[in-house]
Amino acid sequence: MLKDKIKVALVDDHVLLRRGLAGVIDSFGQYEVIFEANNGNHFIEQVDKFGEPALVLMDINMPEMDGFATTQWLKEHFPLINVLALSMYDNEASIIKMFKCGAKGYILKDTDPLELKSALDSIYSKGFYYSELVTGRLIHSINRMDEIENQGSKKSFLSDRESEFLRLVCTELTYKEIAEKMCLSPRTIDGYRDTLFEKLQIKTRVGLVMFAIKNGIVNP
Amino acid sequence: MLKDKIKVALVDDHVLLRRGLAGVIDSFGQYEVIFEANNGNHFIEQVDKFGEPALVLMDINMPEMDGFATTQWLKEHFPLINVLALSMYDNEASIIKMFKCGAKGYILKDTDPLELKSALDSIYSKGFYYSELVTGRLIHSINRMDEIENQGSKKSFLSDRESEFLRLVCTELTYKEIAEKMCLSPRTIDGYRDTLFEKLQIKTRVGLVMFAIKNGIVNP
DNA sequence: TAAAAAATAGGTGTTTTCACCTATTTAAAT
DNA sequence: ATTTAAATAGGTGAAAACACCTATTTTTTA
Q1: Would you give the distance in Å from CA B32 to the centre of its chain?
Q2: For the CA atoms of chain B, what is the radius of gyration?
Q3: Nearest to A165 by CA among A140, A198, A188, A135
Q4: C or N terminus of chain B, fewer CB within 10 Å?
Q5: Residue nearest to nucleotide C7 (CA to C1')
């Protein structure tokens, strides 16, 4: 090695994507993937073993410990490690939440390798990477900053019970059957639904399903 | 090059996964990725330019021309090219349909690189790769082979109109509003819904939404 | 060309979903 | 300790979704 390379870590539950990504990143020359992890918990173990990377490419939807929680954890324990979020979808809520959790950039999985390089370079030299996608979404959200403050700063923003409810909403059960499964009154379920409608600004069960999927609350 | 490598092509709309995959496959030694494509149409163009690969790694959910259609096209025009399906999800219907379209194997995107190599080796030497996943799903389906015959053999199994309907089902529009958008009577929409309920053995709109997502008819 | 299949559209009634109320009990914050 | 907020649960009515019919027109297939 002629000179020290910038250490990168990958966190994603898709092995093939991860390996692939590692190849792409190594091929850039000045970056070096020092380890990979399946999810947040695994990542934390790996940091102990392999030491701190300068940069982490972080998937959002992962089993056990997701990208939000892991990024938040990094912000608290290793604030100098920069996180570049890597997502399947370009939904506004995820972008905002990820930045709130401390990410320094946000790119999609169908990004061109060249843009990936730009992102890495930018984060390493300037400390952030704001793509057109990101700025576009943020500008679109600027009108309702208050809501974002409220939803983005909360750790999970959905209670365990709400997540459980959402998972059941994505099945063919009726609300009455969901109530039985959760050992609650149908009225309470009504309340859960209406609360989520309000929080997420949606009006139908289909809207709930789409939200749950986009945000990885259910795995389709 | 000491000896001729086995030519592989990649078809997937996620550039990073594709590039990564290419790296992994090239690293196996005896395989060589000769080109990549974003979707079926692009793939067909590329075959003209770069010649026939021996093996194609084919994503299922892609824009414009999906994995089913492309595999079917290959079966008709280049029956000697072997297709290994590459999917995000392990849903039974997709596996069966992909094999009906002529795929020789089916692996998930979170497969280990070693298993990918096994799959490639197996398809190249034996002409097929049946993982535990695949055989498991097929055994589970053995009781309703007749249904599979009927749904699997049809070219697309969903008409353009039905796909359009399904996309709208995944929004917060009511069926009446969907009818307006599609310039049809609400009754006709009722018919579309009931036909799909029957075909897919589901009973609710949520079921339709989940089906549409699992099968890439809508991008969440 | 005749028969079969698919796309279109209508009628009617039940169940589910949703909106808009109130109220109690428990947990959190001040 | 007191106020606030959150989880729980109930009532009612309108709209939407679903089930089960029939019937016409167009397209496919035999």
Answers
A1: 23
A2: 19
A3: A188
A4: N
A5: B188
Which of B23, B27, B171 is facing A24, going by the closest CB pair?
Answer: B23
Q: Which residues of B129-146 are buried (b: 16+ CB within 10 A; e: fewer)?
A: bebeebeebbeebeeeee
B114 touching A (Cβ < 8 Å): no
Are B56 and B144 contacting, i.e. CB atoms less than 8 angstroms apart? Answer: no
Kindly tell me the burial class for residue A175, based on how many C-beta atoms sit within 10 Å of its own C-beta (0-12, 13-18, 19 or more).
middle
State how beta strands A6-11 and A55-59 pair: parallel
Instruction: Report chain B residues whose CB lies below 8 A from the CB of A169.
Output: 206
DSSP state of A129: B
Residue A30, both tokens:
């000045």
Query: Contact, A106 vs A134, CB < 8 A?
Result: yes
Per-residue pLDDT of chain B (220 residues; tens, 9 = 90+): 557 899 999 999 888 888 888 988 998 999 999 999 999 999 999 999 999 999 999 998 887 788 888 998 888 888 899 999 998 877 766 777 788 788 888 998 888 888 899 999 999 998 888 887 777 666 555 444 444 444 433 334 677 788 889 999 999 999 999 999 898 999 999 999 988 888 888 899 999 999 999 887 887 7
With a 7 Å cutoff on the CB, does B207 touch strand C?
no
pLDDT tens by residue, B43-81: 999 999 999 999 999 998 887 788 888 998 888 888 899
**Residues of A97-133 as b/e, b for ≥16 C-beta within 10 angstroms?**
bbbbbbbbbbbbbebebebbbbbbebbbeeeebbbee
